[in-house]
Design a protein that fits this description.
7-stranded antiparallel beta sheet, 6-stranded antiparallel beta sheet, 3 helices
C-alpha cells in the first residue's frame, strides 16, 4: 500500500495559558516533506533528538530509529510547552501520526506521548501509548517508580504487512495527577482497526502514573517544567512514520467557535451580532449562557454576575447569539461566554476570552500610494460633456 499523502502546514503559534486555562486554540503538525533526504531530525529547527539515534527523513517519511523525537527544538521549546498544572479538568492533549506496519505485519514500540523534559530521549520521560505487536498499550512509569506500566488497551487485530495506519492518542486531564487515555488505530482510509481507553484514577495507587509527569517541575533545569509532544518509531522492526500532529483541545463543556473569529481585524462596525457554538451539556440539556462584553480585557476576564466590572452583561440567554448596536471604529472588543448547566451537569463553565477589532473610519494613504495626475490639454467639464461619454 502506498504511503498516505496529505498536505499539512507547520504552524507555530504561541500557546497562552492563564488561570482560566487555555486561551487560544493550538494545532501544530509536520508532514516531513520540507526536509531533504537523509536529514536527521536532530539537525532541524523544530525537533530535538540525539545525534546518533535520531530519526532520519527519507522520501518525506521518517525512518525507524532508536531514539524518541520531541517537537521542542528552537521556537517549539516555548510554543509547544504544555503546563499540566494550568490545564483545566476536561482539557485534552491530542496526538496523531501515521505508522507503517513492519514487513511481518506487526508494530514494535511505535509510540506517541508527552515528554516531561524538552532535551531528553529517555523513555521514562514520556507518557502516552504505543503500538506493540498486534495491540495498543499504555506507556508510563508507575507512581514513585521508574518501572514502566504497560496495560493493554486493545488487541487481537490483524495488520497488513507494510500497510500504513493512523494512530490517535488523546490525554484528557481528570485531576491533578490523573488522566483519561483514549487511543484509536485506523487505516489511512479511516476504517477502525482497534480502540481502547484507560482512566488512571481506577488503578491501584502503586499502578498509577508517576506524579513527576504532572508537576511541571521534574528537573532543576529552569527551561524544563512542562510537557512537549513526542513520538518514537523504533528500529527493532521495519516500517516508517509520517504526518505528526499535536493539538490542545479545550474542555468541550465550554462555548467555542466564536463569530467573529478570535483576533479578527477589520470587523464591520455594523456587525449586528456575535455568536458561538454552545458547550455540549448546554446544547444537549437546554442550559443558558451568560455573556460579558466590553473594551477592557481585564474587566471581561474578571467580571461576574454580581460584579460586571463595567462590562455589558447578557444573562440567562437561551440562544447562541447577542444582537449588538453599532460599534465604534478602530476599537478592540473583548467577550466571554459562560455556560450555565442544568442540574444533571450542574455548575457554570467559565468561557475563554475572545476579541476582535473593528475597521478604521478612514485609512491613511502612504506617499507611494498617491498617484500624480496631469491635466489634459483639452479638458472636458461636466456641463460640456456629451451623454454616455
Amino acid at each position: 500500500m502506498m504511503k498516505k499523502m496529505s498536505i499539512k502546514m507547520l504552524v507555530s503559534v504561541l500557546l497562552v495559558f492563564g488561570m482560566a486555562g487555555i486561551v487560544n486554540a493550538y494545532v501544530v503538525s509536520d508532514d516531513f516533506n520540507s526536509y531533504a533526504d537523509g536529514t536527521a531530525l536532530s539537525a532541524t529547527t523544530n525537533w530535538y533528538s540525539s545525534g546518533g539515534g535520531s530519526p532520519v527523513v527519507n522520501g518525506g517519511t521518517v525512518s525507524p530509529s532508536v531514539d524518541i523525537a520531541t517537537m521542542s527544538g528552537g521556537p517549539m521549546q516555548a510554543a509547544n510547552k504544555v503546563k499540566w498544572t494550568e490545564l483545566k479538568v476536561g482539557d485534552s492533549i491530542s496526538l496523531s501520526m501515521d505508522f507503517q506496519a513492519a514487513n511481518n505485519g506487526t508494530f514494535n514500540d511505535d509510540r506517541l506521548g508527552m515528554m516531561n523534559d524538552f532535551d531528553s530521549t529517555t523513555s521514562d520521560r514520556i507518557f502516552g501509548a504505543q503500538l506493540e505487536g498486534h495491540h495498543i498499550e499504555s506507556y508510563f512509569n508507575r507512581y514513585n517508580s521508574n518501572d514502566g506500566d504497560r496495560i493493554e488497551l486493545a488487541g487481537g487485530f490483524t495488520l497488513t504487512a507494510d500497510a500504513w495506519y493512523t494512530f490517535y492518542v488523546t490525554i484528557t486531564k481528570l485531576g491533578d495527577y490523573q488522566m483519561l487515555l483514549d487511543t484509536r488505530l485506523t487505516t489511512v482510509g479511516g476504517d477502525l482497526v482497534g480502540s481502547g481507553s484507560l482512566d488512571t484514577s481506577t488503578l491501584e495507587p502503586s499502578e498509577q502514573p508517576n506524579w513527576y509527569y504532572f508537576t511541571d517541575d521534574q528537573t532543576s533545569d529552569p527551561l524544563d517544567g512542562g510537557l512537549w509532544p513526542a513520538f518514537k518509531n523504533y528500529n527493532a522492526s521495519t516500517g516508517a512514520a509520517d504526518n505528526f500532529s499535536f493539538e490542545i483541545i479545550a474542555d468541550s463543556r465550554m462555548a467555542s467557535n466564536p463569530n467573529p473569529k478570535n483576533n479578527d481585524t477589520n470587523v464591520l462596525v455594523d456587525l449586528g451580532e456575535i455568536s458561538w457554538k454552545p458547550g455540549e451539556f448546554v446544547e444537549a440539556q437546554n442550559g443558558t449562557h451568560n455573556v460579558f462584553f466590553g473594551t477592557d480585557e481585564t474587566s471581561v476576564t474578571n467580571a461576574t454576575i454580581a460584579e460586571p466590572l463595567g462590562t455589558t452583561l447578557y444573562q440567562g440567554l437561551d440562544v447562541n447569539s447577542v444582537a449588538l448596536d453599532r460599534l465604534e471604529y478602530g476599537t478592540t472588543y473583548y467577550w466571554r461566554v459562560d455556560e450555565v448547566n442544568i442540574p444533571s451537569k450542574p455548575g457554570t463553565v467559565t468561557g475563554l476570552i475572545w476579541n476582535f477589532t473593528t475597521e478604521l473610519e478612514g485609512y491613511p494613504l502612504e506617499p507611494a500610494q498617491i498617484v500624480n495626475i496631469t491635466a489634459s490639454e483639452n479638458p472636458v467639464y461636466p456641463d460640456e460633456q456629451e451623454p454616455n461619454m
